[in-house]
Amino acid sequence: MKRASCTSQKWLPGQPSRVKELKHRKKVGVKCEVMECEDTSMVPNRLQFTVDPSCLAAARTEARGGEYFTEAIADVLEEAYHGSGDVITNMKRLILSKQFMWKVYVDVVIQQYGGNIIDAIFIAVKAALIDTRITNLTLVPQDEGKFNIECDESTETNFFQLEAANAPLCVTVNQIGKSIAVDCTEVEEALLRTSLWIVMDQPESERTPDDEIRLRVVRQMDPGGMDPRSVPAMIDLAIRTGRNLHSSVNTR
Question: Which residue blocks in the chain are alpha helix, DSSP H?
């Protein structure tokens, strides 16, 4: 079998959040490879996420839990994009046949840490997936059940893109003392007791009621205790912030 692959990279400095500029940088690379398996319908996760810090950001992420922290971010990305299979509406285009499919690897590198990192990563991943171009391929049967993978000479026009415009975004709500806050700086994060990572879909319209906005992931991070009575207020703040965040990202 011939091997086929395509790559895309998205370099994003700090994206504007609700109040201020995020003081960190991250790089998201998207690599697509054709993989062979017994039955592509039995492979639920066609996107694979990894999150790693650069040397400059390693000490900062270590303070948040090191590998546990970066693996938790990757796990939330996996859950958000694979929960029901409807985030990327043309995901079926990754299937080439019963035995062959495109596997999409999304690699995030935190190059500079400045707080509120997971919210920024979700923005960067969405932008990178939207920009990714995947070559249209043809499988040509050969002897002994083998296949050759062929594509047109011009890959500039012979491609498709993932329909990720409605991908969810994350809003981190932090408990600092008796207060709750979003868009925290690195200094503010050092004071937090605990936090909620809340991944929400894009509202269908500005008039969509809060209780009709889908929350794909709600996960507590950081070891501190959380007063259950504060959770509704934290979710309400996340939804209000998420509305503005989705609107800001869509206008860019």
Answer: 55-63, 67-82, 117-131, 186-189, 231-250
Residue 154's Cβ-count burial label (10 Å; 0-12, 13-18, 19+) is exposed
The CA-based angle 104-107-113, given to 5 degrees, is: 155
Q: Give 24's pLDDT tier (boundaries 50, 70, 90).
A: low
The SS3 assignment for 185 reads: coil
| The pLDDT value given to residue 17 | 36
Is-contact 134 162, C-beta < 8 A? yes
Q: pLDDT tens digits, residue range 29-53?
A: 999 999 888 888 888 778 999 999 9
Tell which wins on pLDDT, 64 or 246: 246
| CA distances in angstroms from 47 to 145, 151, 179, 222, listed in the order given | 27, 22, 37, 27
In terms of residues, how long is the chain? Answer: 252
Per DSSP, the three-state class of 43 is coil
Domains and CATH numbers, the chain: 20-161 (3.30.230.70), 169-251 (3.30.230.70)
Beta strand segments in the chain, E? 5-12, 25-36, 47-53, 100-112, 133-135, 138-141, 147-150, 159-161, 169-176, 179-182, 194-200, 215-221
**φ, ψ (nearest 5 deg) of residue 184:** -80, 145
- What mean pLDDT do residues 203-207 have? 89
Q: In the block, which residue shows the tokens 């950001």?
A: 57
pLDDT range class, residue 250, cuts 50, 70, 90: confident
